[in-house]
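TICKET: design request
STATUS: open
ATTACHED STRUCTURE:
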């Protein structure tokens, strides 16, 4: 399957032997992070088990190496693109495994640092390779931080009747973080991106209802509807922009901190989104903290989102669409919708070198606005995440 996301991984116990050797005197500079996550949609829809492991070590005072592996086991069913009540199935079964690996080298040069990152993610029908280059600079007695960089992805997508199709994505980003006073931090980030190639989802289809007639033997005819499915056809080019602002305020009297973030995004497909997140990190003594949070997201529908080809006014769609000509998709993720996430994270500090974390999130999705998908397409899900962080 082709829904992309970086989640936890598989080769967990092999990772420590895959990282470079370091001198015995440097072993206290080694960090180990691992987590296990489940994503479970209601009504037996999608279920994803994710394993993640990351190791990080200082090779010397200014150089850090980071390595991570991740694995997703995906099973369940997802909306195909047909409509409820159609003669075509509404859901399609999906089973796949995604394995990923990432390696990064960070070099500090005075008040500046630069990082090179290489990554690869593989599924049965999808191969993604990534290259990222980023930097960070400190100014104003380290009260101001400027971050910047680029990320390039080269993906090969397998279409069963056509072969592999290419997709390339380039993102440029810049961010500024400013310490306003000893208890307040303001951060601003901007991302500009462009993608080109096969941008459709290879398993998403769209429905076309035709009226068929057959002679009845008496000079008349029997007329009946037939529901046909065709591959979606998204544009081959897409640009996007995202701006995010975050304000963090530490409240000493309560031993807690508040985070408020606002994210605005838009792309050339006509999808405009807004995300608002609020969380409160509450310290409980010296060894525990709790973080409740809420996140609300809305988006408009893509210009080419339709529930069917009949709605789009297209009677003769292409059998093997390539992003040219008429564009159309019935993917519910391109509809006008809203999501609400409510969660709670807990951390326990086990001495100075270990942290155990547990998180729960409830996720609800609903259609809004003038171009929602059928209500049955939207999912409700629960997520659990268990993590362990060690420093040696």
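STATUS: resolved
RESOLUTION: sequence designed for all positions
ATTACHED SEQUENCE:
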């Amino acid at each position: 399957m082709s829904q992309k996301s970086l989640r936890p991984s598989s080769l967990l116990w092999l990772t420590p032997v895959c990282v470079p050797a370091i001198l015995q005197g440097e072993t206290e500079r080694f960090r180990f992070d691992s987590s296990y996550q489940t994503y479970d949609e209601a009504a037996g829809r999608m279920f994803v088990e994710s394993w993640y492991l990351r190791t990080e070590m200082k090779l010397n005072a200014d150089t850090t190496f980071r390595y991570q592996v991740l694995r997703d086991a995906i099973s369940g069913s997802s909306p195909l693109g047909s409509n409820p009540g159609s003669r075509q199935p509404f859901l399609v079964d999906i089973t796949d495994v995604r394995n990923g690996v990432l390696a990064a080298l960070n070099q500090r040069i005075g008040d500046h640092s630069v990082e090179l990152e290489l990554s690869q993610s593989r599924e049965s029908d999808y191969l993604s390779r990534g290259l990222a280059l980023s930097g960070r600079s400190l100014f104003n007695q380290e009260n101001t931080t400027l971050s910047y960089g680029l990320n390039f992805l080269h993906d090969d997508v397998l279409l069963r009747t056509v072969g592999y199709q290419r997709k390339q994505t380039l993102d440029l980003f810049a961010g500024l973080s400013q310490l306003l006073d000893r208890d307040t931090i303001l951060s601003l980030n901007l991302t500009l991106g462009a993608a080109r190639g096969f941008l459709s989802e290879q398993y998403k289809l769209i429905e076309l209802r035709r009226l068929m007639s057959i002679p009845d033997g008496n000079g008349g005819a029997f007329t009946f509807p037939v529901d046909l499915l065709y591959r979606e056809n998204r544009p081959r080019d897409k640009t996007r922009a995202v701006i995010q602002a975050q304000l963090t305020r530490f409240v000493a009297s309560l031993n807690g901190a508040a985070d408020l973030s606002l994210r605005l995004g838009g792309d050339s497909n006509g999808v405009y989104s807004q995300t608002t997140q609020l969380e409160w990190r509450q310290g409980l003594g010296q060894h525990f903290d709790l973080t409740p949070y809420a996140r609300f997201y809305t988006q408009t529908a893509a210009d080419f989102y339709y529930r069917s080809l009949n709605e789009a006014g297209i009677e003769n769609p292409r059998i093997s669409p390539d992003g040219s000509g008429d564009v159309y998709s019935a993917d519910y993720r391109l509809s006008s919708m809203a999501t609400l996430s409510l969660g709670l994270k807990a951390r326990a500090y086990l001495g100075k070198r270990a942290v155990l974390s547990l998180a729960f999130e409830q996720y609800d999705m609903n259609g809004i606005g003038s171009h929602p998908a059928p209500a049955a397409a939207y999912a409700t899900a629960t997520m659990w995440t268990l993590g362990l962080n060690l420093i040696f």
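CLOSING REMARK: The radius of gyration is 24 Å. Residues 1-27 have pLDDT under 50 and may be disordered.
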